[in-house]
Every structure is written in structure tokens, then in C-alpha cells.
Amino acid sequence: MSKSPIDKALTPEKFEALKIKKPPTNSAGIGGVKAATSHAVKYIKPSNILKITQNLNQKGGFDCPGCAWPDPDDDRSSLGEYCENGLKAMAEEMQNKLINRDFFASHSVDELAELSDFEIGKSGRLAEPMYLPEGATHYQPISWEDAFNKVGEHLNALDHPDEAVFYTSGRTTNEAAFLYQLFVREYGTSNLPDCSNMCHEASGSALSETLGIGKGSVTLDDLYKAELVMVVGQNPATNHPRMLSALEKTKKNGGKIIAINPLPEVGLMKFTDPQNPIKMLTGGTKLSDVFVPITINGDVAFFKALLLKLLEKEEETGGVFDKTFIEEYTSGLDDFISDLKTYDFETCLKASGVSKDIFDAVLDLVLKKKKIIICWAMGLTQHENAVDNIRELVNLLLLKGSIGKEGAGTCPVRGHSNVQGDRTVGIWESAPQAFLDKIEAKYGFKPSPKHGYSVIESIKAMYEKKARVFFGLGGNFISAVPDTAYSAQALAHCNLTVHVSTKLNRSHLVTGQEALILPCLGRAEKDYQKTGVQTQSVENSMGIVSSTRGVLEPCSESLMSEVAVVCGIAHATLKHKSKIDWLAYKDDYNLVRDDIAEVVSGFENYNTKIQQPSGFYLPNGARIRKFNTKTGKANFTKNKLPNWQLKDDELVMMTIRSHDQFNTTIYGLDDRYRGVFNERRIVFMNREDMKQRGLQEQDIVNLKSEYNGVIREANNFKVVGYDIPKNCCATYFPETNVLVPLDSFAHTAKTPASKSVRITVEPVH
């Protein structure tokens, strides 16, 4: 009997051999070198390892397909501009094993679904296009021409273009992303959900409202010169390890660092640069001056408590607020102060879960410092009040005048390598009308002004059969989105699901009536087209656009670039109706960049600028105190405390990554920095909470969440005692995405609330 879509979407409930060790007190160093080397040697052809390490993130080389942390503008390390997890990413994408028609003939979709996510990912690189006919059990080969025509036939058979959904992951380059959104808009819809919807949409919403640009305002040089860096809801050692080198420079230059997070992440405590022999011998650099073990979603409460004390000191002695900056550049101070005074300090501090001693240590640093940077990631953005979280951080920076000056500002740290660039060049379901007008002026068709589906809206539309075709340009959609069971059923309602990918993932196993897997080149591979090897470009977390050019020969002759795939599908779908010569773009990517230069602000003379070895900075108003908001100034905001009222048996769960993971890609089964080895089905719990429930280490439990009367379950997890605040727990995703309600998301941003899920923990007897 065939497995259901839900069975295929959920990770198998099997255990490995869990081992628990005491977490280390130092990050990177010898351990990082060993881990990176072992992955490279195991999965990459020996002849390719040197080429990869010499060219990864180097000027004239290729951009890491992992995180979006920026490269230095000046000289780059001759020992390599990459980290442990960057090399793991390359070992995943450039793995030496290929899978083609023989592999799929030997493994049915149901059989593949029984594998763990780690096993699926390590099956090998996809080597040729594959097609799953309606009712079939096995994928079978298909030519590129037939695949493109299949997509075109399905799209043209829909009653309306809005019945198609076009998803984008953050690994897509600027050139591919621009053409993709252009095709989708000429096809007739704005349904362009992307991974921004699930991670930093709340940052974009909050920053656009308060500072006039949905991006951070700092550069790497600012981090080096900051007097105080606050790292909030973030685990750099795992998610963007090269950030630790920048924080080490902050410390070297006399800056202080505050880490605010429910878990005491090792990477923010101490860092040993694996490229510095002296540091390796002497034991590294202590990073955090103060660690703040905040309760999950206690951030607004904590920052409001800080703001109350800053206000108190300002009214007592003065000199705390930057009044010159506030008067010239901000709006809404009086309303903000009036609202702030309605809150009680003790209530806010208690709601944050932070002790008075730790709070006072933070307050002392904030009072003394004038150049403050606040960095954050998904620990702040994946809550129902995520936008409030970010706005409250901005309030603090505005009071201190720490926006638009050297060594100060906002630093949202993006995840995937080009997620910010994709949005910049038009991957947006709610693009501004000014951008759509430029599209119309350039190409002669009128894009739909109607806002399209975000990720959450796309899932609902597919579930309700309002959308019948799903197209994914990169990513692992089913493992990334919330409410796994509901989302799997939504995809199964489609007539056709299509994924452009480098390797096998679980989304290829949760299909519509028909399915296509279209294999594309990896970032490190040469992109041969009629005019020669092509150069592409990406944008990092700090708004720098730089070139990326592969150095390895493609692992299969049957691969296409993402640009070529988009052009082929656009040509097959729109045919003679199109006003655009799609196949010309495929032959010469310079033509794509010429068009971007005309349509997207900040990209003038793109083909010339992209030749600069370090790339070029895009305009950033907040960086120069030009605030493109409705008031023309930076805006103070009023933000409420979240209303958490847990039942006696409830905990607040946040989903997190292991150290052997990037987004939904599982590199291995170890979480070295948390002392967990060879297992992912675990739940980190406060030991007092364990005692209250009669639980011991490695007891097996089932997890349940209830939201608006709907109960969701994730079974078979092992309990691990950990230093996490009471009434809080943490689990890995995608294993517990099934517990995240689809209807629980950030206001005005619709980012899933994956970091604040109410659950109960029930022992398995």
C-alpha cells in the first residue's frame, strides 16, 4: 500500500545511538578543523578539494552556498575564507556520488521516504531530469525539452495564473532570481513566496517601518569599531561561523559583547581561530562579557526594562539619550515615552526571566557606550510578536543615537547565501508599485498589481485547491515550512510539483499527481553557455553585491544552470505570446545584468561594477541617516509585552538547528557544541521541569501542541537535560515542524512562530 503524503513528509521515528557529553567551553579550533576536513575527505573528490578551498569566498572565486555573512573588503585570508560549516556545505553540494535513472529505478518514492533526512541528502548529486507520472511508484528519466513542455502545458491549462505558486530559496543568484520573477509576472501572477517569508520577513517589516529600509545598516568595519555589540537570539558558531572572527576583532579593538539567548551557545562564549596557530596554542578569545539567559520570547520585556531604566537615568542626570540625533532625525518620541511609562520595571524584568544582577551588568554597559550594534537572527523573528521584537531593539538604538554612524546600527544576520539579493531583484509577493512600473516600462507588459501568496498563504491555497501547480527554485520546501502534515496534504492536492535542485531532498518525495526533479549546477561548478563560462552575482547580509564564478567541471553533462532552467520554462510556457527573448538571456548573462541595471535601483552600470574584486555596496539610507519612511525620519514605536499564560503542564518550545545542519540540510548527526552525538530526535529541557514531570535523562516522550483547538503530535523523542530557562524547551527542525501551527505567525510579516510553540511532554511507557 502506498504511503500517504503525510507519512512521506514526516521524518522517520527511528532512533540512532544517542551519546551525551559535557558541552565544550570553546568553539572552532582543532575540533572545527577536524570536522571540516573529515567531511571534505569523505564526500568530495580529492582532486576538487584544493580548488574549492582556494576559491571559496575569494575575490574572483565563487560564493559559499551556505550563509550570507560578508567577506572582508580588503585582503582575504590565504589559508581560506571559509568556515567549518561552509566546507560542510561544499561537501554536501559537491559530493562525489551521482544518482541517475538507475538509482530511481531501484528505489521507489515510498522506499526513499523511509530514509532519514541525512540519508536522503547523502544519496548523491542529481545527474539528470526525472519525472514521476501520475500513479507511478518510481521516478523515470525525461529529456529537458519534454520537462519544459510538461511545465508549460500544466501552467497553460490552469484557469488563471494565480493557480500557480513559484517558490524561491535563498541560494538562487541575482541573475536567476530576476529572470524568475520576470517570467512569473509576465505569466500573470504575483505568487512569489520565498524563504524570506519564513525567516527575516519580520526584520524587513520592522526596519522598513522604523528606518525606511528592510536591511541592516552596518558594515564589517562597523563591527570592528563598535563599543558594544549585542547578539540577540542568534547562534553564530553554527549558523554563520565567520561572524566569530569579526566579533574577535570587536574584542581586540576594545569593544564589549553581550549575548542574549535562552541557550548558552558555546560559540558566543569563547572562540579559537582555526587559522591562527598562536590562538590554537593559547586557547582562543573570550567573546561575551555578559551572557543573558532570557526566557523564550522574553525579548520585548527585557528591552522594555532596559528602556525604562535608561529613561529613569536620563530624567535623573541627563546625558543618556542622544538628544541632538533624536531632535533632528527621529519622530514619535513623546508617544513612545508616554507608552513606555505605562509599564512597570519589575513586571518587565520578571517576564524576561533575567536576574537583577545580570540585568544591571547589561544596563551598565548600555549606559556607558555610544556606539552600539545589535545583531539578531531567527530567535527574534519567528514569533507572533516578532515585528515588535525588532522595533523595540530599534527604539534602544534611536535613544542612543546609534544609527547611521561609525560603529553603530542594525545587523539582522541573514541565513541563506542570497536570500537578501533575491528580494532586492524582485522576488517578492508584494513588490512595490514603483518596481512594477519599471517592469512595465522596460518590457511592455503590465504586471499584476495584486499582492500574491506568501509561503503560508501558498500552503493554504494548495490545500484548498485554489493553487494547482507548485514550482520550487531551490530549497526543501516541505522540510522548511510549518505544520508538516497540513503542508504535505497541500502539495498532494497539486496537479504538478516541480523542484530545481542539486541533490535529493524530502520535498521530491511529497508530490502532486505528477512531479519533476530538474537538476541544476552547484555554485562551485562552471556554467558553460554559448558566450563562454558565465559569471553570476549575489548580495550578502550587509548589502554588498559581488561576483561568483564556478571553478569545477560540472559533475554531469545533463545539468543546467538555474538561469537556463528559468529561460527554458519561460520559453516553453509563454511561447510567441512573450515580449521577451528568453533564450538570449541563457546565452549571455551580461544581458540579464543590463536589464537589472535599468529596472532595479542601485544597480546602475552593473556589468562594470561587478568586475570590482570586492564587489560594490548598494545604497542604504539608514547608513547615512536618510530615512525613507512615511515621516521622512526614523520612527519610535509602541510595542506590547507578549501575553504568555502557560497551563501547568505546558512548555514553550523553540525549534533550533544542530551544529551538523544548515537550514533543512543535515550534514551529520552530531551537535558537538551542545554535547549531543548521533541523534536528532531529542528535546532539550530544564532539569527542574524534568523533575516535575518525573523524567530522567534519555526517557522517551511524545510531544503535543494545541492551537485554536487543533492538536498536533510528534512522537518518539529522547529527553536531554540542559541549561535552558524553566518552562522552556528546544528541539531540532525539521523533526518538530509538524508541531508549528500554520496560523501562528508574526503580525504584518506572516513569519511562522517556530520559536514559540506551546507543547506538552508525555512519557512513553
Overall description:
- The protein is an alpha/beta fold and about 775 residues long.
- The chain folds into 3 domains: about 5-20 and about 645-765, Barwin-like endoglucanases; about 130-195 and about 420-615, 3-Layer(aba) Sandwich (Rossmann fold), CATH 3.40.50.740; about 200-410, Dimethylsulfoxide Reductase, domain 2, CATH 3.40.228.
- The strands form 10 sheets. The protein has a 6-stranded mixed beta sheet, sandwiched between helices. A 6-stranded mixed β-barrel has the order 25-32-29-31-30-33.
- β21 (about 535-540) and β22 form a beta hairpin.
Spans of at least 5 consecutive residues whose pLDDT stays below 50 are: none
Q: Mean pLDDT, rounded to whole units?
A: 95
Shape: globular
Task: Give me the CATH architecture of the largest domain, please.
Answer: 3-Layer(aba) Sandwich
Helix content: 25-40%
Domain Molybdopterin dinucleotide-binding: 651-757
Domain Molybdopterin oxidoreductase: 125-499
GO molecular function, one term: molybdopterin cofactor binding
Keywords: 4Fe-4S, Iron, Iron-sulfur, Metal-binding, Molybdenum, Oxidoreductase
